[in-house]
């Protein structure tokens, strides 16, 4: 019998889940409907850096997940045949001013590479060598170069994956939906029953699961970044991403496009307004990194809403007491990196059922999802 699966949310988690639900064995007997209204989506606002290996975060579960996510990217891109405009391993450079700090970072890179071959080549670069790789920078610091680091265009990735899934078994509905207390999905055409529902609504999980009697420990965080056009500069297609110490990240996308950001604004509200003071601050950071850039170079300011849990860790899986509904949230500032692996795992679980054991990647879901009756 045909299986009907709904996905609520079309960011990186929902889009990757939809893609895998269109290619996994058994998907031929499955009809998938994705509901998304796109407002505030973190995925389309994101800077696009895929380089988790030198993070100072001590959460080993998060690190294993981020490492798996970074390793999945090249395979996913090959399979989906998405080009270098969407994803490219341009390499990433992390800079440190103090030589001993740089040595510590390089040691960490070699240690981490033992279990993360995706990292590729590691090179220690002088300030002059950093500038040679990224001629846009005017006063770079020395740094470590990781050749497997990448940049991804979140909006283009989602678009590419959804287009391929739509050619198979996916229908997309651009609308906001909600749950009934018994887990039906209320659409503009009324309540609908689905055999499985994947809830990939990012920062909006709390309101979406409330009708089920579930309380989600997820809060929103605003993020802003600027997109610059610097086409007068010698921009190579494959210029590395730079994560400069004490400054905003610097992401060259080719074709004159450069991203500088992002902010982490913790006022706990869903606020998509562009703040001119923040734009000026981001521009000032860009100007400290490279001379000659002015407000005239800003082509867009992107605003998105990240989802955070109290321990800053993502979670995903069947909602306790609602096993037919799978949720994912809390991807925070690294969700472009972890999102595809989460989407892939959720797709398999929605299709084949069973009780997944993802304890290597996350704490039990009861850590983040509790009953409102408690
Ligand atoms: C400025 C910024 C920069 C970032 N930079 C990076 C980076 O460089 N590297 C990195 O790894 N990560 C980065 N991130 C983090 C990353 O973007 C997020 O963690 C990730 O995109 C979250 O994906 P998601 O699918 O969980 O949620 P989202 O992308 O937010 O998607 C959720 C979707 O659900 C929809 N939705 C919500 N409620 C409903 C409803 N009731 N009905 C229908 N649809 C609904 C929303 O409209 C939205 O489209 C950044 C984030 C921001 C904001």
TrEMBL record:
Signal peptide interval: none
User: Where does the record place the FAD dependent oxidoreductase domain?
Assistant: 4-347
What highest taxon heads this organism's lineage?
Bacteria
Q: Which UniProt keywords apply?
A: Flavoprotein, Oxidoreductase
Task: Give GO cellular component annotations, separated by semicolons.
Answer: cytoplasm
* Pfam families, alphabetized: DAO
List, in alphabetical order, the Gene Ontology terms for molecular function in this entry.
oxidoreductase activity
Cofactor(s) essential for the protein: FAD
Family membership, please give it. Belongs to the DadA oxidoreductase family.
- The identity of this protein, by name, is FAD-binding oxidoreductase
Tell me which species this is from.
Levilactobacillus suantsaiihabitans
